């Protein structure tokens, strides 16, 4: 009996540790969007509440325009939670905020990668965040800035596999990608 008690205590510490170490993941927002699409506002509000809490904690450790914009959008979304739980929320408005947050999150992650010089060997993370930005471009009604961002992101996607290599070619790719991302992020910051 004593062994079982010790085992249960040890397992509870393991699971409590897992809950505390949970981090924000964009898939949480995708899950919330899926629930909204199915008309499940109440469950979506729970997922969004948890996601915004984790996102805000993660983002507060960051700095820059994208981080402050994420916190602002998360605050806007949290104000809509009571209406979402009651089933009276403006669903298209909530979906737009979620898409904006996803775009800003991708931009913040890319900005940190560029500023930290962490592009080499991180193609998967780079492409994941670039794709968040590309999907976010659909929020805007076109224009020169959107076209320029989209073209730059397409070039980044094309050059990204070179970042997994070594040597001169990889360093040149990192330099070119950093420049394209810098331009794209500056333009995006002006749009959002």
Short overview:
This protein is 79% helix and 0% strand.
Write the layout of secondary structure elements.
Elements: H1 2-20, H2 26-37, H3 41-60, H4 65-79, H5 81-86, H6 91-116, H7 123-136, H8 144-159, H9 168-191
Q: If you had to describe this structure to a student in words, what would you say it looks like?
A:
The protein is mainly alpha-helical and 192 residues long. The protein has one domain. It has helices at 2-20, 26-37, 41-60, 65-79, 81-86, 91-116, 123-136, 144-159, 168-191. α2 packs antiparallel against α6 (91-116). The chain starts with a helix and ends with a helix. Mean pLDDT is 86; it is low at 1-20.
Which terms summarize this structure?
192 residues; mainly alpha; 79% helix
* Computed structural class: mainly alpha
Following the backbone from N to C, one meets helices and strands in this order, namely HHHHHHHHH
**Cα-based radius of gyration, to the nearest Å:** 20 Å
Q: What count of structural domains?
A: 1
**End-to-end C-alpha gap:** 60 Å
Q: What low-confidence regions span 5 or more consecutive residues with pLDDT below 50?
A: 1-20
Helix % is over 70%
Number of helices: 9
Q: What overall geometry do the principal axes of the alpha carbons give?
A: elongated
Largest sheet: none
Total strand segments: 0
Beta content: under 5%
Mean pLDDT: 86
């Amino acid at each position: 009996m004593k062994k079982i008690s010790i085992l249960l205590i040890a397992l509870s510490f393991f699971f409590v540790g897992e809950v505390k170490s949970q981090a924000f993941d964009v898939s949480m927002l995708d899950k919330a969007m899926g629930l909204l699409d199915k008309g499940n506002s109440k469950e979506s509000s729970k997922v969004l509440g948890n996601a915004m809490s984790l996102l805000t904690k993660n983002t507060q450790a960051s700095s820059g325009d994208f981080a402050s914009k994420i916190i602002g959008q998360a605050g806007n979304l949290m104000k809509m939670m009571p209406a979402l739980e009651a089933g009276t929320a403006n669903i298209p408005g909530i979906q737009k905020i979620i898409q904006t947050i996803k775009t800003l999150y991708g931009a913040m992650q890319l900005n940190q990668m560029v500023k930290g010089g962490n592009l080499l060997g991180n193609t998967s993370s780079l492409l994941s965040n670039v794709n968040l930005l590309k999907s976010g471009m659909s929020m805007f009604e076109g224009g020169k800035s959107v076209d320029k961002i989209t073209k730059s992101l397409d070039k980044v996607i094309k050059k990204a596999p070179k970042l997994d290599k070594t040597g001169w070619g990889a360093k040149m790719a990192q330099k070119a990608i950093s420049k394209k991302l810098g331009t794209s992020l500056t333009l995006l910051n002006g749009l959002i």
